[in-house]
């Protein structure tokens, strides 16, 4: 594998002595290793941070999203409107549901779900809207939530990038109905590699999530009736716990899953959350440095947040509006200068699993245009040294100048696409 001077991180948070102390303290104690007070403390700190009544931890962001989808209780004929411009885990649980999935195009400046496109798609069958705060920039939630409320639809926010962001004084995870966070190693904070959180206000959902994540099935006691006769209680191998199991078993209606966050992860989650402000500050410094380069050069534009929105800069994104393959040339120039580029994300409606369900090209023209010819994602994480940030800013400036000063790109196509007329259902 090639070694880049500046690369994407396999660890995007910083782990330090405070995290180490949290793990050491657990190991030296005689505390339970799961279901203990560290998880409660992490959840309490998280719900205080997001401003939601409940914060319930699980083992990954993917599991949080799966559980959120389960809470909807979807029926055949229901519709769920989703963004195509996200990681596949945002919507993969919908593949197993019989509800109809409708892809809603994104705004060309934010790559977040476009409320104008949403308005044309939402209707009486819409049960939920599933969106991401792309790269850590909150979506236009006031308009989206208002549209969803008007149709009785639940809004699920994938906040995997958005921890540390804010929207009109509020935190992602409290803007819609259910927030789903990830603490995977590459996210804004990590719970030792894997972890997730659900945030919401509803008490009935909290009860259900506590059951599901603890492998408690939804079921009822029925007589243990294998042979036609109740099982004899005297068989020595029938050492089930609880007297009821002697002559009865549980008939499962809906299964649970085991998704309890371990105490070591929760302890580190607490110490990581305490550092969130400084981790995000470092991301902002790097992003501001790169934005300054992009703003000096014409036919490229930054991924900037409106004044009342704070970007968490999970991803650093900029756009090339020069057409004619200029974006791909810029990618090659960056690569040749030792900068790793990973484009995020291939539009989900074009992936084979969704094409098999009838989705395909033309459904979300803005997302497609952005992926195939405009957007670029650069490394931006607290693990980058000052020297690496210098290298990155220099390589960016040189790459943009090399390509955009070139006369071959005079077919200027300066404006991001704003036409949603070609959206089809
Ligand atoms: C990382 C990520 C997830 C999945 O989280 P895991 O904890 O890795 O399962 C979901 N959505 C988005 C947008 C992500 O970036």
Task: Please explain how this structure is put together.
The chain has 425 residues and is of the alpha/beta class. The protein has helices at 17-28, 37-50, 61-71, 115-121, 141-150, 203-213, 263-296, 326-336, 352-355, 365-374, 386-404; strands at 54-58, 79-82, 100-103, 126-132, 154-158, 166-167, 178-182, 196-200, 218-223, 248-254, 300-302, 309-310, 316-320, 375-378. Helix 5 (141-150) links the parallel strand 4 (126-132) and strand 5 (154-158). Helix 1 runs antiparallel to helix 7 and helix 8 runs antiparallel to helix 11 (386-404). The model is unreliable at 418-425 (pLDDT under 50). Bound molecules: pyridoxal-5'-phosphate. Pyridoxal-5'-phosphate is lined by residues 60-62, 86-87, 89-90, 132, 158, 160-161, 182, 184, 196.
Q: SSE layout and pairings?
A:
Layout: H1 17-28, H2 37-50, E1 54-58, H3 61-71, E2 79-82, E3 100-103, H4 115-121, E4 126-132, H5 141-150, E5 154-158, E6 166-167, E7 178-182, E8 196-200, H6 203-213, E9 218-223, E10 248-254, H7 263-296, E11 300-302, E12 309-310, E13 316-320, H8 326-336, H9 352-355, H10 365-374, E14 375-378, H11 386-404
Parallel strand pairs: 2-3, 2-4, 4-5, 5-7
Antiparallel strand pairs: 1-8, 6-12, 7-8, 9-10, 11-13, 13-14
Helix pairs in contact: 1-7, 2-7, 7-11, 8-11
Bound molecules: pyridoxal-5'-phosphate (PLP).
């Amino acid at each position: 594998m090639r070694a880049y001077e500046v690369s994407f991180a396999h660890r995007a948070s910083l782990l330090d002595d405070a995290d180490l102390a949290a793990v050491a303290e657990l190991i030296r104690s005689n505390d339970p290793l799961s279901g203990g007070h560290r998880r409660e403390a992490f959840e309490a700190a998280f719900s205080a941070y997001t401003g939601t009544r409940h914060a319930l931890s699980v083992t990954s962001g993917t599991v949080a999203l799966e559980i959120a989808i389960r809470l909807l209780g979807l029926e055949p004929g229901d519709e769920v409107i989703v963004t195509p411009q996200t990681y596949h885990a945002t919507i993969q649980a919908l593949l197993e549901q019989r509800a109809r999935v409708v892809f809603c195009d994104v705004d060309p400046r934010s790559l977040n779900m476009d409320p104008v496109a949403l308005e044309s798609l939402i209707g009486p069958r819409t049960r939920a809207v599933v969106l991401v705060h792309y790269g850590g920039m909150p979506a236009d939630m006031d308009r989206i939530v208002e549209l969803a409320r008007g149709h009785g639809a639940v809004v699920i926010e994938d906040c995997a990038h958005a921890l540390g962001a804010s929207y009109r004084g509020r935190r992602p995870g409290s803007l819609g109905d259910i927030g789903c966070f990830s603490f995977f190693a590459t996210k804004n904070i990590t719970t030792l590699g894997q972890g997730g959180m659900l945030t919401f206000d509803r008490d009935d959902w909290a009860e259900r999530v506590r059951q599901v994540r603890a492998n408690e099935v939804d079921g009822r006691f029925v007589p243990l009736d294998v042979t036609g006769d109740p099982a004899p209680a005297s068989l020595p191998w029938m050492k089930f716990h609880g007297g009821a199991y002697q002559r009865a078993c549980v008939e499962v209606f809906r299964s649970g899953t085991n998704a309890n966050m371990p105490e070591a992860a929760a302890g580190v989650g607490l110490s990581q959350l305490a550092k969130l402000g400084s981790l995000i500050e470092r991301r902002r410094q790097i992003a501001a440095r790169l934005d300054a380069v992009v703003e000096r050069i014409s036919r490229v534009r930054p991924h900037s947040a409106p004044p009342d929105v704070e970007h968490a800069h999970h991803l650093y994104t900029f756009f090339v509006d020069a057409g004619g393959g200029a974006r791909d040339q810029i990618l090659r120039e960056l690569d040749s200068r030792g900068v790793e580029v990973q484009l995020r994300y291939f539009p989900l409606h074009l992936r084979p699993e969704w094409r098999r369900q009838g989705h395909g090209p033309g459904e979300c023209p803005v997302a497609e245009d952005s992926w195939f010819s405009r957007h670029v994602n650069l490394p931006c994480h607290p693990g980058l040294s000052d020297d690496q940030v210098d290298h990155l800013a220099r390589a960016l400036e040189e790459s943009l100048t090399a390509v955009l000063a070139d006369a071959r790109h005079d077919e200027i196509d300066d404006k991001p696409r704003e036409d949603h007329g070609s959206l089809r259902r």
